[in-house]
């Protein structure tokens, strides 16, 4: 559909940003908090970065919320750290942990900002991990339910929007890299058991939220990377569909329809995978109706028919030097590839604002559930210039194009109620610490030097402030190229010119 005007965002649309506890808080052993599995992972696996200080949000949260208010935010997505709430196996609730999040929530509400917490964003307490062998054990279901109960009891009076488990799909797809595998487990087979336990935990969170939080709404947070077929070759189409199924669709189908699709059941059968599905499990999953989908969408990928002669697991770009990413080649299933029609970040992530519109349309068409953007963002190497400023035009371009494409999806008919890009302040990237920054606000530290942790507003902060103030109308430039496709053909013709040379 060609739209004749700039998008119109609905009344009450939530404009904000997002973060997670372990990437921003620091104070990992303060206020009664104990260690989480991602603390250990971040310390022991270079280039992960020690998160004991992170952006020191724990000590700066009032200042950070004041900056959000100055930017005009009406929402903020953040993570709650499980080991801050329940630090030990005696399951005693930590009053200091409750106080920290309670104060944060009150501060946000006083600033007119809707709090949107994530219940689980990779920081499982070490004691839980040890007790249950991580997500492999069904004991996790009751433990997670207990944690959710504590959150809903303490914050449900003030928090109405909840996010359950961050990027369950990515945890299963990239679980080895995130430290979820354990000695003695056959990851490629047993990860599906872990996934089933996570689905049951997710279902418990949804059910409890509806029971305990008056007017409470809850949704999953898939990491969504649409897969375009490389060509019109029919085999590329099927390979792209396989990639989409095995990296994201399986999860969405389970959340929304409460079933494991015939695709995944056949996949398990053919690969000798058994999942312990006990009586009552599927009834629980089916009965847990989500209210919305939190969409994390940074980029797209390209799928093509795999080369049957070799196996290649994806090897992520860990340095930020373009061209290091090695794409998956999985015989019989799919291969991924570079999309020459879009640019990439220094970490080889495709910069593709249309992928946002595409994902929103795809998810709305398939699942008919309202959506909120819970992540999208531009990771970059940055430091203050001689004037103490950051001129992040690339991030402004990225956020402007992505937000505009959210608007186009709304005009296409998709129900979207908020935009919360990653991230407000700089925080630790999962793969690259402070070397890969995402914030609208610079935090003055590097991976090796803590400096003074002072906050500096980047140019993107001011650009976003203007956009929010205008209710999503002041884009700072003519955006019609996104509506009439001239932007896309421009990039394609640049590439054709490059190819001719
Ligand atoms: C999302 C995660 O997948 O991507 C965040 O929910 C993460 O935790 C973000 O930080 C960006 O990825 P990265 O690896 O650049 O930090």
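-> sequence recovered:
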């Amino acid at each position: 559909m060609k739209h004749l005007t700039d998008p119109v965002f609905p009344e009450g649309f939530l404009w904000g940003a997002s973060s997670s506890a372990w990437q921003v808080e620091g104070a990992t052993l303060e206020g009664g908090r104990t260690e989480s599995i991602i603390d250990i992972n971040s310390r022991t696996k270079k280039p992960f970065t020690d998160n004991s200080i992170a952006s020191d949000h724990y000590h700066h949260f009032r200042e950070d919320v004041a900056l959000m208010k100055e930017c005009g935010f009406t929402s903020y997505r953040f993570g709650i750290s499980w080991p801050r709430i329940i630090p030990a196996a005696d399951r005693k609730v930590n009053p200091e942990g409750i106080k920290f999040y309670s104060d944060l929530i009150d501060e946000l509400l006083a600033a007119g900002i809707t709090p949107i917490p994530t219940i689980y964003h990779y920081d499982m307490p070490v004691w839980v991990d040890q007790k249950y062998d991580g997500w492999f054990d069904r004991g996790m279901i009751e433990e997670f339910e207990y944690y959710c109960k504590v959150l809903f009891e303490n914050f449900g009076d003030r928090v109405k929007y909840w996010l359950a488990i961050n990027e369950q799909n990515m945890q299963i797809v990239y679980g080895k890299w995130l430290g979820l595998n354990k000695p003695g487990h056959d990851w490629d087979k047993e990860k599906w058991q872990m996934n089933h336990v996570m689905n049951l935990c997710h279902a418990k969170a949804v059910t409890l939220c509806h029971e305990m939080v008056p007017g409470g709404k809850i949704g999953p947070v898939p990491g969504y990377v649409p897969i375009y077929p490389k060509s019109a070759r029919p085999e590329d189409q099927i390979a792209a569909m396989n990639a989409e199924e095995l990296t994201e669709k399986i999860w969405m189908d389970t959340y929304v329809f409460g079933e494991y699709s015939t695709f995944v059941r056949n996949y398990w059968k053919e690969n000798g995978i058994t999942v312990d599905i006990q009586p009552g499990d599927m009834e629980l999953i089916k009965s847990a109706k989500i209210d919305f989908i939190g969409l994390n969408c940074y980029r797209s990928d390209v799928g093509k028919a795999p080369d049957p002669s070799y196996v290649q697991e994806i090897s992520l770009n860990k340095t930020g030097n373009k061209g290091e990413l090695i794409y998956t080649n999985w015989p019989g299933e799919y291969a991924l590839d570079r999309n020459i029609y879009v640019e990439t970040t220094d970490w080889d992530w495709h910069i593709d604002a249309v992928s946002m519109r595409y994902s929103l349309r795809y998810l709305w068409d398939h699942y008919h559930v309202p959506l909120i953007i819970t992540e999208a963002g531009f990771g970059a190497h940055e430091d203050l210039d001689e004037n103490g400023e950051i001129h992040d035009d690339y991030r402004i371009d990225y956020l402007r194009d992505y937000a505009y494409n959210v608007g186009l999806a709304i005009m296409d008919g998709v129900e979207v109620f908020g935009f919360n890009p990653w991230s407000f302040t700089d925080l630790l990237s999962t793969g690259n610490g402070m070397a890969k920054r995402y914030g609208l606000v610079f935090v003055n530290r590097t991976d090796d030097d803590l400096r003074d942790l002072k906050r500096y507003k980047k140019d993107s902060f001011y650009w976003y402030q203007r956009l929010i103030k205008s209710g999503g109308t002041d884009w700072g430039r003519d955006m019609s190229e996104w509506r009439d496709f001239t932007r896309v053909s421009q990039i394609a013709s640049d590439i054709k010119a490059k190819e001719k040379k």
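The pocket of 6-O-phosphono-beta-D-glucopyranose is lined by residues 20, 23, 166-167, 170, 223, 296, 375, 379, 422, 429-431, 436 (CB under 6 Å).
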